[in-house]
Amino acid sequence: MAPARVLVLISGSGSNLQALIDASNTPALPDVEFVKVISDRKDAYGLKRAEAAKIPTTYHGILPYKKKFPDDTEKPQFSEARKAYDADLAKLVLAEKPDIVVCAGFMRIVTPSFLEPLHEQKIPIINLHPSLHGDLVGAHCIERAWEEFKQGKRTKTGIMIHYVIAEVDMGEPIVQQEVSIEGCETLEQLQTRIHEAEHKLIVEGTKRVVERGRQ
Ligand SMILES: Nc1nc2c(c(=O)[nH]1)N[C@@H](CN(C=O)c1ccc(C(=O)N[C@@H](CCC(=O)O)C(=O)O)cc1)CN2
Ligand SMILES: NCC(=O)N[C@@H]1O[C@H](COP(=O)([O-])[O-])[C@@H](O)[C@H]1O
């Protein structure tokens, strides 16, 4: 059987991409091939990690689309710029014929202009999110959990790998893990604790979806 073709979307440092690369073709994540890494940010260090691993990369920035639609709305579901961006992103992704798309710190809300073309091809899109399903959604969830911990509103948070649907961070969870905040004295300590857990969970979540695709 041919290796599963994995395409990864990133925006930042790419430590989760690195975890996937390091685990690839070991028992933790067997028989996979990274076909491309796409970033919406040109300065994403994850692009350098991909290049070091000899994985093809593409920078797909939003600016040209914003310039094309100067009077655009900021609401993701109605933005012409975002829809055009997402439609082109879908074309870039489909050109690689992936078996799975992994959002590993990809910090853009995607619209049906991206989701539908991939859904038609039955290509699963999964995402790493630093909260449990139905708890915190959106960006900056680690910071928000930390603030609530300091206010005495919570002692735990978590992480999950979930399917990506239009409703942000509400797609079916694939695997989740609770993370205690207790014992952390700074936000940085919580971030470290969460990132260490993420690096394991993203490998497990990707492996499960790859295996489902092979059934
Ligand atoms: N339609 C969906 N798109 C995305 C999902 C999803 O479940 N459905 N998951 C995200 C990843 N994500 C959280 O896990 C997330 C990323 C970014 C944002 C966000 O508010 N982005 C802003 C820009 C923020 C910035 O530039 O710093 C935006 O897109 O306007 C929310 C959730 C991947 N996309
Ligand atoms: N809502 C999505 C979100 O907040 N994702 C977060 O982006 C980081 C990516 O780190 P990385 O670039 O080092 O892999 C991760 O901590 C992940 O939880």
From TrEMBL:
Q: What class of enzyme is it?
A: transferase
Q: Which PANTHER family match?
A: PHOSPHORIBOSYLGLYCINAMIDE FORMYLTRANSFERASE
Q: Enumerate the Pfam families for this protein.
A: Formyl_trans_N
| Pathway(s) of this molecule | Purine metabolism; IMP biosynthesis via de novo pathway; N(2)-formyl-N(1)-(5-phospho-D-ribosyl)glycinamide from N(1)-(5-phospho-D-ribosyl)glycinamide (10-formyl THF route): step 1/1
Listed name of the protein: phosphoribosylglycinamide formyltransferase 1
Q: Which reaction does it catalyse?
A: N(1)-(5-phospho-beta-D-ribosyl)glycinamide + (6R)-10-formyltetrahydrofolate = N(2)-formyl-N(1)-(5-phospho-beta-D-ribosyl)glycinamide + (6S)-5,6,7,8-tetrahydrofolate + H(+)
Question: What family, per the record?
Answer: Belongs to the GART family.
Gene3D superfamilies from the UniProt entry:
Formyl transferase, N-terminal domain
Q: What is its EC number?
A: 2.1.2.2
Q: Which InterPro entries match?
A: Formyl_transf_N, Formyl_transf_N_sf, GART, GART_AS
Q: Which organism is it from?
A: Zasmidium cellare (Wine cellar mold)
Q: State the UniProt keywords alphabetically.
A: Purine biosynthesis, Transferase
Domain annotation Formyl transferase N-terminal: ranges: 5-204
Q: Where is the signal peptide?
A: none
